[in-house]
């Protein structure tokens, strides 16, 4: 699943995204199941509106109805659920820190290593997230690396979940 490539294809082929979403909804409706990825029964026009906002388009869609405050709040509360997801296992690599109660997490592929540092620091009640190093394959990860970048460059052909280790920061000098 390559989100960027899919977005490019949707932009190049007019009407493809709408047709695929319609077919998907019909399929799940025939089975009597809820459509995966729907947020409280969102409609196609709302999904298209969200995608156009996400892609930086500000032109109003003539097919969409005026949004109520409830729909606007729903749009604001997406919390990157529609992003590509990454499954992660966070293991402690030091006897100085304790392990997490729940070491398995799933989050957006757009989250950064800095987000993980802040998450771990909060869960372990550390005074600062700067006290942590996060490693993949024994290699310290940069704070601005996205999890997608880590998977593509460091985890490559290994199966999910992405195994990351954390430890107290080590000063080399």
From TrEMBL:
GO CC, one annotated term: nucleus
Subcellular location: Nucleus
Basic and acidic residues composition bias: residue spans: 48-71
Superkingdom of this protein's organism: Eukaryota
Keywords (A to Z) from UniProt: Nucleus
Matching InterPro entries: PcG_RING_finger (IPR051507), RAWUL (IPR032443)
Record carries keyword Protease: no
Region Disordered, residue ranges: 36-82
Entry coiled-coil feature ranges: none
Residue ranges of domain RAWUL in the record: 103-167
Protein name from the UniProt record: PCGF3 protein
Native source organism of the sequence: Baryphthengus martii (Rufous motmot)
């Amino acid at each position: 699943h390559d989100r960027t490539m899919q977005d490019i294809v949707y932009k190049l082929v007019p009407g493809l995204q709408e047709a695929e979403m319609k077919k998907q909804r019909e399929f799940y409706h025939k089975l009597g199941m809820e459509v995966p990825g729907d947020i409280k029964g969102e409609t196609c026009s709302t999904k298209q509106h969200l995608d156009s906002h996400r892609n930086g388009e500000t032109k109003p869609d003539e097919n969409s109805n005026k949004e109520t405050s409830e729909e606007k709040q729903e749009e604001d509360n997406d919390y990157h659920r529609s992003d590509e997801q990454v499954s992660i296992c966070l293991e402690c690599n030091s006897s100085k820190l304790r392990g997490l109660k729940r070491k398995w997490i799933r989050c957006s592929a757009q989250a950064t290593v800095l987000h993980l540092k802040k998450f771990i620091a909060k869960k372990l009640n550390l005074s600062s997230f700067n006290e942590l190093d996060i490693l993949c394959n024994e290699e310290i990860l940069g704070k601005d690396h996205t999890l997608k970048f880590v998977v593509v460059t460091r985890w490559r052909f290994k199966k999910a979940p992405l195994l990351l280790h954390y430890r107290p920061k080590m000063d080399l000098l």
